[in-house]
Amino acid sequence: MALPIMAVLVFFLVLPILMIVTVSFWQATEFSIIPAFDLENYEFLFGSNVTYRVFFNTFKYAFITWVFTLSIGFTVAYFLAFHVRSLTWQIVLFLLCTIPFWTSNIIRMISWIPFLGRNGIANSTLISWGVIDEPLDWLLFSDFAVILAFVHLYTLFMVVPIFNTMMRIDKSLIEAARDAGASGTQILWNVIIPLTKPGIMIGTIFVVTLVMGDFITVRFMSGSQSANVGRLISNDIALLAYPSASATAVVLLLTVLIVIGILLRFVDIRKEL
Amino acid sequence: MEPRPRSFYILSAFFALFLLFLYGPTITIAILSFQGPGGGLTFPMQGTSLHWFRDLFEQQAVGDIWGSFRRSFVLGLMVMVTTVVLSVMGGLAFRKKFRGSSILFYLIITSLVIPSILISLGVGLIFSQSGLNVHWSTSGFGSQLTWTLPFGLLIMFAVFNRFDKSYEEAARDLGATSWQTLRHVVLPIIGPSLIGVALFGFTLSYDEFARTLLTAGSYNTLPLEIFGMTTNVTTPVLYALGTLTTVFSLLMIGLFLSLALWSTRRKARVGSDAGKGML
Question: In chain A, what is the greatest distance between 2 CA atoms, to the nearest angstrom?
Answer without folding.
Answer: 74
